[in-house]
Amino acid sequence: MKTAVNFRTINNLAIPATIAGIAEPILSITDTAIVGNIPVDGLESLAAAGIVGSFLSMLIWVLGQTRSAISAIISQYLGAGRLEEVKSLPAQAIFLNIALSLVILLSTIFVIEEIFRLLNATGKILDYCVKYYAIRVWGFPLTLFTFAIFGIFRGLQNTYWTMLIAITGAVLNIFLDFLLVYGLEGFISPMYLEGAAYASLISQGVMAFMAFIFLIVKTDISLKLRFPLHPELGKLVVMSLNLFVRALALNTALILAVREAAALGDRYIGAHTIAINLWLFSSFFIDGYGAAGNIMGGKLLGAKDYNGLWKLAKKITLYGMAVSIVLIILAFVFYYPIGRLFSNETIVLNTFYGVFFILILSLPINTIAFVLDGMFKGMGEMKYLRNVLLSATFLGFVPVLFLTKYFGWGFSGIWIAFLVWMAIRGGALVWKFRRKFRPLLQNT
């Protein structure tokens, strides 16, 4: 059956995927906004939440790549009309991923203070980092489990279930943040930063449980581990390893940015925490069309519909660009109120406002990178995605970061490095897609 590549089909996938995608940054943004306004040590708590959040995001993104690999394989089998042949693969992939996550989780617990020292956390901020991480880290395997099931749903061309799960998790997290951080007079004492950590952990647990129930009730894919190992497991592991290396390169940039911001001082890491959460929020917002490209791209490739692939790339880029323009207008209109949502510290806000415009102007560039990134994942082009991230990080981001530092550009230099980083990523994907698929259009 031919896949329709039109406004309705794309948006039926992209809109729920957008809502689901922004749930994770909403969790972080909620923590940032509420923690940043804590009446006791608000600046230190905000800095700690930013450092820990960046480190946990690194772990999740590094090990959460199985989601994209599962989605790519399932969607390609679906497009080829051979879905029955791959139904034992998801359980094997999930068990492998969760086992690895537990090993990493347990290994970090004993050296976490040293890790945060490497990120330039000291004194009270370091103490807060350790306490916050000791709670948040247990949500790590829960999130990986949820992500893997989301990959199955995407491969089956469904983003509605992930949207319902994500909305529930986000709303629950916001409610628990207010309840546990500030307390309820006469019933619950304020827990401040630790309350935010427990709110996130509980929300992650609820989302994992819901994902499990939806998988059992709504699909006929089982999580029962069966042998022998599926022939595609090796391909999935190779794809995941390529994405693993890619995620390491990606997080090298994110962690270096946090480290350089922390080295500049408390107000800079506070401002960077606000900025990076907004950057992630906008990225996931735009990435809804990347998710549609991921889902439909794999199916179209499996069906060898190259004309459909070309049409899909043009449409999701156009729709994603429209979303980014709306975000740019809203960001400039509410430039100052947005900052005040996250902190009441004037020195932090002034620092943030000094780079916010760079973040806003990067949105169209980010759009091209994210939507094509999603398509390439769906088509299984993990090796190329790996090479693009390695080049963008070590030939673009890192040199620009340290050159701007050398020339004394300070905090602005970090965000200029992000701009260059995304421009390289987007440009490389446009070049590769046109080079690979334009010739195929002439033969179909």
Automatic annotation (TrEMBL):
Domain of life the protein comes from: Bacteria
Location in the cell: Cell membrane
Protein name as catalogued: Multidrug-efflux transporter
Keywords: Antiport, Cell membrane, Ion transport, Membrane, Transmembrane, Transmembrane helix, Transport
UniProt key word Transcription: no
Name of a matching Pfam family: MatE
Transmembrane annotation, as ranges: 46-64, 93-112, 132-153, 160-184, 196-216, 236-258, 278-297, 318-338, 350-372, 384-403, 409-431
Mode of membrane association: Multi-pass membrane protein
Organism in which the protein naturally occurs: Sediminicola arcticus
Entry's family note: Belongs to the multi antimicrobial extrusion (MATE) (TC 2.A.66.1) family.
Keyword Nucleus listed: no
Listed PANTHER family: FMN_FAD EXPORTER YEEO-RELATED, MULTIDRUG RESISTANCE PROTEIN NORM-RELATED
